[in-house]
Design goal:
This protein has 259 residues and is α+β, with helices and mostly antiparallel strands. The protein has one domain: Gcn5-related N-acetyltransferase (GNAT) (Aminopeptidase, 3-Layer(aba) Sandwich). 24% of the residues lie in helices and 28% in strands. Strands 1, 2, 3, 4, 5, 6, 7, 8 and 9 form a nine-stranded mixed β-sheet that branches. Strand 4, helix 3 and strand 5 form a beta-alpha-beta unit. Helix 1 packs across helix 2. The longest helix has 15 residues. It is globular, with a radius of gyration of 19 Å.
C-alpha cells in the first residue's frame, strides 16, 4: 500500500472523498444529535486537525477514477480548553461533551490546551493492515506539531459489543494475563502507543428515537419494554415500547496520550 497521510488543510480537495469511505459504523450511531450537528463542521472549522490517508498519488491528477488517490482512512480531532473554568476533569459525558466544548471554545475565542480524538475510521477495503494504529500515531504527531503536549480520546472499545451486559467499569480495566495489556484490542493499541487509561465516560453518547426509528435502524422488533441487545451496540438499548421510544447511552473509556 502506497500510503500518504496529510492534514485536510494541506489537501482540501479530499474534503468530499473522506466521507465516501465504506465503514462498519452501526447505522444508529449516525443519529446522536450532538454528532449530527457538529462532526461535519470539523472539516470546515478545524482542517488542521483532520488527517486523511490516501493510497495513491499525493497531487491532484487526471485519473477519472481516483484523481487524488483513494481515501482509505480518516482521523478527526478537535482542540479544546480542558483547563477552562468549570472544567479540569475529563467529562463523564465524553464524546458528546468534548465536541460541545470544542465548538463553544472556537465561538468564544478560548485558547485550547488539549486535543481530543473524535474518530478514526478505516475503509473496509483496508481493514487488517494496521491503519488504525498508524492514524493514531499521526494524530499524536500532528498535535505535537501544533504545539500541544497531550491528546485525549473517548475510546469506543471495539470488542465491547460482544459483551453488552458486561460492566464498562470492569471491562475498561480488564487486562490479559499474558502481558498485562488491555483485553480490548482498540484500548490495547492506545496503551501500546503510550496512553494511560484514565476513567470511564459512562454517558459518552446518547441516541434516542421512536420505536419505529429503532426498528428501521436495527431490524429488531422493539416490541417489549426493557433492554434490547442490538448489533454493534456496547450496551443494550433501553426500550419503552408502551411509551413509544428507545434510548441508547453509550459508555466510552477516556485515555490520555502525553506527547
Amino acid at each position: 500500500m502506497d500510503l500518504h497521510i496529510t492534514t485536510l488543510a494541506e489537501r482540501p480537495e479530499l474534503a468530499g472523498d473522506l466521507w465516501a469511505m465504506k465503514d462498519l459504523w452501526p447505522e444508529f450511531m449516525m443519529y446522536d444529535p450532538v454528532g449530527w450537528a457538529n462532526v461535519g463542521r470539523i472539516v470546515a472549522d478545524f482542517p488542521e486537525y483532520v488527517l486523511v490517508a490516501t493510497d495513491g498519488p499525493t497531487e491532484p491528477a487526471t485519473d477519472d477514477v481516483n484523481p487524488h488517490g483513494k481515501v482509505v482512512a480518516r482521523a478527526l480531532s478537535v482542540p479544546f480548553a480542558l483547563q477552562a473554568d468549570g472544567r479540569g476533569e475529563l467529562p463523564d459525558t465524553g464524546w458528546d461533551q468534548v465536541l460541545l466544548w470544542a465548538f463553544s471554545d472556537l465561538r468564544h475565542g478560548r485558547k485550547p490546551d488539549t486535543v481530543s480524538a473524535i474518530e478514526i475510521t478505516v475503509d473496509t477495503s483496508a481493514l487488517g493492515k494496521g491503519l488504525s494504529g498508524r492514524m493514531l500515531a499521526a494524530m499524536r504527531d500532528n498535535a505535537a506539531r501544533l504545539g500541544f503536549s497531550e491528546v485525549v480520546a473517548p475510546v469506543r472499545p471495539n470488542a465491547k459489543h460482544l459483551e453488552p451486559e458486561a460492566s464498562i467499569h470492569e471491562y475498561a480495566f480488564r487486562t490479559r494475563e499474558s502481558d498485562g495489556l488491555p483485553h480490548d484490542p482498540w484500548l490495547r493499541v492506545h496503551v501500546r502507543a503510550g496512553a494511560t487509561i484514565e476513567k470511564v465516560a459512562p454517558a459518552s453518547m446518547t441516541v434516542s428515537g421512536s420505536v419505529e426509528q429503532w426498528r428501521a435502524w436495527t431490524g429488531k422488533p422493539f416490541d417489549t419494554d426493557g433492554p434490547v441487545e442490538v448489533d454493534g451496540a456496547l450496551v443494550p438499548v433501553h426500550c419503552e415500547v408502551s411509551r413509544g421510544y428507545g434510548v441508547y447511552v453509550e459508555p466510552n473509556v477516556w485515555v490520555r496520550h502525553r506527547i
